[in-house]
Every structure is written in structure tokens, then in C-alpha cells.
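Dear all,

This email documents one entry for the complex benchmark we are building for the journal club exercise. For each entry we list the sequence lines for every component of the assembly. Then comes the predicted three-dimensional structure of the complex as a C-alpha cell string, followed by one or two observations. Please use this as the template for your own entries, and keep the labels exactly as they appear.
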Amino acid sequence: MTQPLTSERILAAAEDVLRRHGPQKANVVDVARALGVSHGAVYRHFASKQALREAVTRRWLHEFHTILEPIDEPRAWIRALSAAKRGTARVDPELFATYSALCDEQSAVVDEHVAWMVGQLEAMVGDKGRPLLQATTRFHHPAHVHEWSDPEIEHDLERVLDLVLPPAQ
Amino acid sequence: MTQPLTSERILAAAEDVLRRHGPQKANVVDVARALGVSHGAVYRHFASKQALREAVTRRWLHEFHTILEPIDEPRAWIRALSAAKRGTARVDPELFATYSALCDEQSAVVDEHVAWMVGQLEAMVGDKGRPLLQATTRFHHPAHVHEWSDPEIEHDLERVLDLVLPPAQ
């Protein structure tokens, strides 16, 4: 019995290909091979290599949205964002580096992700949402992954939160 | 008439070598060749390739210190830091990328640079100095160079400064 070929199955296979072969290999031919299907079958779901790479990047970023969506207090939200990024990088540093490289190339997908995060924060703190996200860049932007193993990182985040979201507010 | 071989002449030559050949070439043999001297003559000033690479990185970062040192108001200081980094990246993007790569490998030199910046800010705002520098990371850390061509970058910095250094303070 063969499972139906869904977009979700293709994206899960694409993540496996990324994990094993790095960011260059997230293309239709390699993913079709991993699934044992024709590349035509994959093209029916993703019209191009670019569409597949966008979708796999969006799926990764969406996992963070799922964690953040229920949180409605800005300090807790920023702490959760930082902890989720750091945790993901710690558990599988190579896959994190692979997705970071994909994000560097998929700027439209990253713009959507940033706009989503700004929207969440704006619902909590109004027009301070965007500067609040930017002021905590060091604690969630993948470019700073090498600073996240610093034992002071959580303490540093608390100090920045005290500055940008003073408890008296 | 030959000029005396000073450390400063060696470091200026090392920057020329970096500009022409990228970060891998900042070594004693290439710099000695560029100066037309023996590598023994360079070793009398810098005992190893590592010492030379540290010194050339430190010299580059020191140029920012020279700009910042006279400024004693925290908003003006952060604006000057951000403008100096952005300006340097805009004038010679390749040399900026080369020095960024050197900084990535010379973490002790970068730690000194960060400690110097924190010290400057602490003299102005006390123990808010360190979180203030971290909250403005996006606007001066070389990892964000690709965001600096955004036409909103200066506006974004002002919004973050309003958050971290409210005018009423």
C-alpha cells in the first residue's frame, strides 16, 4: 500500500535531504529520488526548485510560530522565541546552519516571518512591536548562533528586557 | 633612502594585502613580499602569523574607537557607531567582508573591542551600558551588513533608541 504523495510528505522528505546533504540539495530531483517517485510527481505540488525551497523554509519558520502563537505577554513571548531558536540550534547545529543558509537566500520568506513576529508583538505593545523585535536581535537572529553558547546569554537577555520592557510599564 | 620598518608600516602593508587577496593572505610571508623585506624582518615585529592577524584586526577596530572616544552622549555615540560601521561597509564592501571574517576568527580581539565599547557606554549610563550595546546589535554588528542598505535603517535605529533611551530619561 503506497501513501498518497502530499505536499507535507514532500516537505518532510526535503528536510531529510537537507539534513543529510546540506542546503544545496533541496531540489526536486533529489527529493523525488528520496521518496522513490518521479520528479513529475513532485512538480505537481511544487512548480519549481525555488517553490520547493521556499516552502521548506516557510515550514521550518512556521514551527516557531506554532510555539509563539499562544503566548500573549511580550517578555514571555521574546523569551520563548530566543529559547526556541537556541534550543533548535543546540539539538542539531548542522540542520540549523542549513536552514540559516536557506533563510539567507529566501529573503521574501524571511520578510513574511519577520512581519508575522512584528504583528504578534504589535498586538501586545502597539507600535513598540517592531523596535522591540529589533532590540532583541542578538537573542533570536541565526547570525548570532555562535554567541548563544555563552553561559551569560539568558542573563544578558533579561538585562535587555529590563531596558526595553521596564517592569514598571 | 629606505624608510625604517615600523610596526605601523607592516600593518599598513598587511591591510593592502588583505584588500587585494582576502583574509587568508594576511600572513608574514605575503606581507614581507609586499614590503620587499625578508620575513625575518617582519617576525622581529610580529612573532607569528597569529600575532600579525591579531594586530591588523585590532588596528581596524581601533579606527572606530578614535571616532567614538570624543562623544559623551549615549544616543550620539550609538548613532556614530552605527554610521561608522555602515559607512565603512558602503565605501569598500569587500574589505569590510575581509575584516569581518578576520574578526570571526580573532575572538579575543573582538572581546577587547566589545569591552571597550561597554566601558564607554557605562561611563555615560552606568550598568545599562552593556544591554544598551546589545539592544542595538542590528545596527553595528557586521553580521547584519546586508540589512544596512535598507532605506529604513536609520529610522529603525531611532525607534530602537526611543525604546532603550527614552528622551524623558
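Observations: Residues 49-68 of chain A form the longest helix (20 residues). Chain A touches chain B at residues 128, 130-132, 134-138, 141, 143-144, 156, 159-160, 162-164 (CB under 8 Å).
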